[in-house]
Design a protein that fits this description.
Elements: E1 13-17, E2 26-31, E3 36-40, H1 42-49, H2 56-66, H3 73-85, H4 94-107, H5 111-118, E4 121-127, H6 130-139, H7 146-165, H8 167-176, H9 180-207, E5 215-220, E6 223-228, H10 239-266, H11 271-291, H12 299-308, H13 313-328, H14 342-373, H15 376-404, H16 411-429, E7 436-444, E8 447-452, E9 456-461, E10 465-467, E11 472-477, H17 479-500, H18 508-535, E12 537-539, E13 544-547, E14 558-559, E15 563-569, E16 574-581, E17 593-598, E18 606-613, E19 636-638, E20 648-650, E21 654-661, E22 671-677, H19 684-699
Helix pairs in contact: 6-9, 7-10, 9-10, 9-11, 10-11, 10-12, 13-14, 14-15, 17-18
Length: 702
């Protein structure tokens, strides 16, 4: 410790802050050059208040005599190191200048390194809005009145209720807008919603006297997003005011979403309704799924930090979690970075672990997105950079720390880690028995859909229930066929009379052959028309039950060609057609046990066994209820026009597996559900390695 304390920078400001969780006072050090804020406690404040005394001993003696605090020179040394580390001390010596220069040099990166670290996120300040924000805030003061909030909440609730009554139309609008024009509309709606979001932050900050330094565009994975600099909100000692600023963006977007949903429910179809749909969906989804998340540094994080009154929440929780891992996994005698109440202590550790898992998924997703955004060579490079920097680098840094302190790790923990690694590898090499699953549909093994072969009028029809083989199910009458048959009969009878009148005529024998040919033609036509009419007598092909009779059918109703009228099933035998991914088809063999879980029927589980596995992928789905476009479980794509099979094709490579079930379902009808098959056991480690290598070989093929 030098005899005199180093001087502080003259432009620093000391501001009061909200009290700490234990009730002790707190202050903020404001660095106006970097616009940064540092929270300090009571002891730090007392030492800074006496900094002008110059001598460390004089500062300690003054605090001990004038307050109830009992500091020592070690506390003063720690505060001095903190001030020096954050460049809050005035540089008064050449040694200090050299130290600062060396520190700045260490923090400098090569241009390529800087680009790799910052291309995912950087800011472009565009405006300094403080002047016009002050004028606008006075005119929009009515937005912050309780009556306005209650009115918007009620209107949003009405909008949600009306949209719920039109949910099918709302969902269809989402599917219909997945086009190029629809995506452009969503992008424009996103821009409007985010502009209102940032304006909400800026307006609320101005209302509480916080300076908005600048507004601009932040490039997030090369996607432009508006942002507002409200970092000076830490000047506010009232945590409720900071909370209001942090949540203003989410509140503004929720208000926009609610009002847009109400307007969508009221206006007629057209461009305006589509625009309102874009505003409603983008605001609801982004607000609830992205901005409200506390695991990234979005609004949800700052709201949670203000609610807990805990600045630097991620960093403090991360330090606690790393200490917890070192103490419990490595057995290191690591001191806790801070002392907190037991409940808060455990909660922050759990929060940090969940944050790490959440960010792992986000970083992997960003890496995949970056790969697909660029050409293959650059995409692979950036993918590796993202995985290496955000996923592997923190693990390597932590492992280096453990390695540097390996002598402190107890031998029992080292042995335990080795045994755990061997057990994990062994577990990955053992082919554990496990089930595989897929979507499927249950239907009778013998079933026949009754179609109307021709257009006609229903004369008679049978009701749903048991039927015998050959029983008349539907009788359809075609007046056109009857008229054609009568016309052919009349022409045949006319030719017969003409043949009878040829006797005795000089040229009778010559004309007989011609008229006889016409007679035979008319007779054949009459027979053909009657055969067609007989096809309209629809009979049961086998003994069973008639089900799914069209409820709109009745005597006198006209039906179209190939219209399904009902279905005859044999209720004594049932099968399930399941569709499993290509990666699992090699694990299924005839004779494997299987279970069918009907959707919405928790007690209708059916047991069965596999009887057949297709050797080629399914080109189309056998039933429309399986299609995700109709609410089913399988995502599909429309077939190309040149495809020989109609319908929609599964998006993934799926293989059909036929399963015969034991017994019959409680309700003798078609059902959609999930199939679980006790397939061949497979070791997960070789399968994972093969999968990774296969993807690598595929993607590295230029």
């Amino acid at each position: 410790m030098t005899p005199l304390l180093p001087p502080l920078r003259e432009e620093l400001r000391l501001l009061p802050a909200a009290a700490n969780g234990d009730g002790s006072p707190a202050w903020m050090i404001h660095d106006p050059v970097c616009n940064r804020f540092f929270r300090i406690g009571w002891l730090d404040f007392e030492m800074l208040a006496r900094w002008d005394l110059g001598s460390p001993a004089a500062v300690v003696e003054s605090i001990q005599s004038e307050t109830t605090l009992l500091p020592n020179t070690g506390d003063l040394q720690a505060l001095t190191a903190f001030l020096e580390r954050h460049s809050l001390l005035r540089i008064a010596t050449q040694a200090g200048v050299r130290s600062l220069t060396e520190r700045a040099a260490r923090q400098q990166h090569a241009p390529l390194t800087w680009l790799l670290h910052h291309y995912l996120f950087f800011r472009l300040p565009l405006a300094r809005p403080q002047g016009w924000l002050g004028r606008v805030a006075q005119r929009l003061d009515w937005l912050y009145r309780p009556g306005t909030a209650i009115l918007i909440a009620l209107l949003s609730l009405v909008g949600l209720l009306l949209a719920g009554r039109q949910w099918d139309s709302f969902r269809t609008s989402f599917v219909d807008n997945l086009t190029t024009g629809g995506l452009i509309g969503f992008a424009l709606a996103l821009t409007c919603a985010k502009a209102l979001h940032e304006f909400g932050h800026a307006l609320t900050a101005t209302r509480y006297g916080v300076r908005v330094a600048h507004m601009g565009v932040a490039m997030v994975v090369l996607w432009p997003m508006l942002y507002t600099d409200t970092s000076e909100s830490w000047k506010l000692a009232n945590p409720r005011q900071r909370l209001a600023i942090a949540s203003a963006g989410i509140v503004a977007e929720l208000a926009l979403a609610g009002l847009a949903t109400l307007a969508w429910s009221l206006v007629p179809d057209g461009p305006l309704r589509s625009a309102l749909f874009f505003l409603a969906t983008t605001s609801w989804v982004l607000t609830l799924a992205v901005n409200a998340s506390p695991f990234m540094r979005f609004d949800g994080y700052f709201i949670l930090a203000d609610l807990l009154d805990m600045p630097n929440l991620h960093e403090r929780a991360g330090h606690l979690a790393r200490t917890w891992l070192r103490r419990h996994l490595a057995g290191l005698d690591e001191p806790w970075p801070e002392r907190l109440p037991p409940g808060q202590h455990v909660g922050l550790i759990a929060f940090a672990l969940v944050t790490w898992i959440y960010r792992l998924g986000v970083f992997i997703g960003i890496a995949v997105a970056v790969y697909y955004m660029f050409f293959k060579a650059l995409g692979i490079l950036l993918f590796l950079v993202e995985i290496g920097w955000f996923v592997l680098r923190p693990l390597i840094v932590e492992m280096r720390e453990w390695r540097s302190r390996r002598k402190e790790i107890p031998v029992s923990r080292k042995r335990g880690a080795l045994i755990a690694a061997l057990v994990l590898i062994l577990a990955g090499l053992i082919p554990w028995p496990g089930s595989l699953s897929g979507a499927g549909w249950l239907h009778a093994e013998r079933q026949h859909t009754v179609h109307a072969p021709l257009a006609g009028r229903v004369v008679r029809l049978a009701g749903s229930g048991p039927v015998e083989a050959g029983q008349l199910l539907f009788e359809v009458e075609s007046p056109e066929l009857l008229l054609s048959a009568r016309r052919a009969d009349g022409q045949r009878e006319s030719s017969e009379r003409e043949l009878a009148g040829l006797s005795g005529l000089p040229d009778g024998e010559q004309r007989r052959a011609q008229i006889q040919g016409q007679h035979d033609k008319y007779a054949a036509e009459a027979g053909a028309f009657r055969d067609e009419a007989a096809r309209l007598q629809l009979l049961a092909p086998f003994k069973g039950q008639l089900v799914d009779v069209d409820p709109s059918l009745a005597a006198g109703v006209w039906v179209a060609p190939r219209q399904a009228l009902g279905m005859v099933i044999d209720p004594t035998g049932w099968v399930v057609e399941a569709f499993i991914p290509e990666a699992d088809v090699g694990r299924v063999r005839p004779g494997d046990a299987a279970r069918f879980h009907p959707t919405g029927q928790p007690f209708g589980i059916l047991e069965g066994k596999v009887i057949e596995v297709d050797s080629t992928r399914s080109a189309t789905l056998p039933h429309p209820a399986l299609d995700a476009a109709a609410g089913g479980p399988i995502a599909t794509l429309p077939n190309q026009q040149q495809s020989p099979t109609p319908g929609r094709s599964p998006r993934e490579s799926l293989y059909r597996v036929r399963i015969v079930v034991n017994g019959s379902p409680a309700l003798p009808r078609i059902a959609i559900g999930e199939v679980r098959i006790a397939g061949e056991g497979r070791a997960w480690l070789p399968a994972a390695v093969n999968r990774i290598l296969a993807v690598g070989v595929r993607e590295l093929g230029f």
